[in-house]
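Bumping my old thread because nobody answered last time. Still need a sequence for this structure:
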């Protein structure tokens, strides 16, 4: 169940960050409210996660997968450009998250 909370926290954070971009600096009401609400949901779910999973592992997964997913959304939805350096960096982040998960006894 802990990893389900973590997955939901990641999803909420990714949607919050997407809404943050759409809020245009918190000048648009509805995207601003969505962003604030979903960040709250994300942090709440993350707080449930760290009761049972080491905080370093939970945060590595939460932030690492969030970075990868928000880059994908930025590329496909907001038409952000991604270059080779970005791809290499994202692969290193994914590798780091995998290594952190494999090297812990949190399971």
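Sorry it took so long. Here it is:
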């Amino acid at each position: 169940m802990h990893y389900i909370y973590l997955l939901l926290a990641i999803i909420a954070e990714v949607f919050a960050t997407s809404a943050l971009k759409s809020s245009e600096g918190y000048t648009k009401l509805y995207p601003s409210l969505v962003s604030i609400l979903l960040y709250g949901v994300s942090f709440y779910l993350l707080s449930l996660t760290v009761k049972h999973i080491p905080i370093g592992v939970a945060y590595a997964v939460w932030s690492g997968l969030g970075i990868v997913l928000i880059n994908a959304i930025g590329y496909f939805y907001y038409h952000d450009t991604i270059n080779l350096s970005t791809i290499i960096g994202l692969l290193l982040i994914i590798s780091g998250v995998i290594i952190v998960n494999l090297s812990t006894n949190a399971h």
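Residues 37 and 45 are 12 Å apart (CA to CA). Let me know if any region looks off to you.
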